[in-house]
Structures are given as structure tokens and as C-alpha cells.
Amino acid sequence: MEINEYVKTLAREGELLADAAEQAGTEALVPTCPQWRVADLLKHTGSVHRWAAGYVANAQVEPGPFPQAPELAGAELLAWFREGHAALVRTLTEAPADVQCWTFLPTAPPSPLAFWARRQAHETTVHRMDAEAALGAAFGPVEPGFAEDGVDELLTGFHARPRSQVRSPQPRVVRVRAADTGAVWTVHLSQEPAHTVRGDAHTGGDPAGVDCELTGEAAWLYAALWNRLPLAGPGVTGDLELARLWSETAGI
Fold it and tell me: Does the predicted model carry a pTM greater than 0.90?
């Protein structure tokens, strides 16, 4: 995806998040984030937006502290969230394409600007789902190509980091297959951080070499692998304990 596509998605998803949060009310519980209320969701995402914007706007090349959200509530908290979201969109839109700043995933896109545009588009989309869950509404659609991209970021980026807790005492293999886009990932689990490769050519596509397979539309995989939907159903085959392992240990 192009940077401007990520920024457009970020802009839309932030507005949807704020609208759903306003309808739900800031004291509503967030079922997809146990122990959180909508106020916590707005404070977290609003702080993330300001944190990300700071790296890009200031060309900051070293990691810095995470900003603390102010003690606001109700309409004032929603206004604070919207202000930070708009500032992030503006920062990413106006930043020079060659800006240099800190990034944090091992499979980052080719430029820091692309990294932050991508990361914040997905951050905001996932938390938009949380706001919809608080409202009691079905999740709004996620475009298949964008969902595929988000699954890729999660598998090859977040869970390649040493801090990932998705580990297995014995080597196991999970295959993830997006039925609508054709994307495939093979995830090798062990006592070390997961190692994910795109495709299944190295196993010849042989299901005998796979312990668990997750198959579904990219949007379902996106929500389920981010633990916003149950990782269960007819698309989950093989060793179901591996799906349970993911659900229990893959929180970011």
C-alpha cells in the first residue's frame, strides 16, 4: 500500500472510532479489552497518536517516553482524542518523504514515514473495533488488502520480536491462509520468537508438515489474530491447542 492510502485509512478509522466511542459513552466497558472502559481506550489511542506524531514531526531518532493522557472525561476526552488524531494525520501528510526517525519492528517498511503511516492505520483500525465492541455493534468492514497487510505486520513484525510470548516447548508449524486474497504465511513456533515466512513453498504446500491451519477471509484473520474475534470455527483445523495458545499469549 502507498503511504497516502495508509493515511486516508488512518483518517477514516479515527473518525469512526471517535463516533462509536461517543455513541457508547466513555464509561462503557470494552469487551475486547478486559478491564478497560471507553475512556481508557481513548486515552491509550490518543496517547499513541501523539507519541507517533512526535517521532515524525521532530525527526526523533531515539526512542522516547510514552506520553501520559490528561485526566479528562466525557466530551472533553473525546475532543482531546480527535485533536490528537487530526494532528497525526496532518503530520504524516505534511512530513517529507525522506524523514528519518525511530521505528520499532524488525520488518519495517522501506521508510520511517511508511512505517508510521502503516502502524498507525492498523493501530487505529483495531481500536476502532474495540469502540464498536463497547457500543455492542458488529465490526465495520476492513478492506481485504489492508487486512492482509495487517496480518503480515502482526506475524512478521510484532511476533518476531523477543518480547513476543507466542512460544512452544516443541517445534510446531501454523499455516495462515487468507482465502480471499490468496496470501499465505507459515509460522514456525518454538521456544524462541516465532519465525514467519510468506507462502508455503518451503513445505511444498504439504499439509502433513503443518500442525494447525487457520483459513478464512483476510478481515476475519485480521480480527481473530489480533484477538478481537474468537480464533475458532471451521477455518481452524489441526491441533486446536495451537489456536488456544495464540489466543492466550499473543496479546500486544
Answer: yes
For 2-22, the pLDDT digits (tens) are 999 999 999 999 999 999 999
Residue 210's φ and ψ, nearest 5 degrees, are -120, 130
Q: Are 120 and 49 in contact (CB under 8 A)?
A: yes
The span from the CA of 82 to the CA of 227, in Å, is 25
Q: Are 189 and 242 in contact (CB under 8 A)?
A: yes
How many angstroms separate the Cα of 226 from the Cα of each of 130, 171, 213, 222? 11, 23, 16, 6
Q: Output b/e per residue, 7-17; b: 16+ Cβ within 10 A.
A: bbbbbbbbbbb
Chain Cα centroid distance, residue 232: 19
Burial 24-42 (b: 16+ CB within 10 A, else e): bebebebebbeebbbbbbb
Q: CB neighbours (10 Å) of residue 181? A: 17
In the sheet that holds 172-178, the strands lie side by side as: 195-198, 184-189, 172-178, 212-216, 236-238
Give dist(CA 128, CA 136) in Å, integer.
12
Report pLDDT digits (tens) over 101-136: 999 998 877 899 999 999 999 999 999 999 999 999
Q: Which of 122, 126, 136, 174 has its CA nearest to residue 6?
A: 122
CB contact at 8 A, 120 and 47:
no
Spell out the SS3 assignment of 169-192: CCCEEEEEEECCCCCEEEEEECCC
CA distance 197 to 129: 27
Q: Which sign does the torsion angle of CA 91, 92, 98, 100 carry?
A: positive
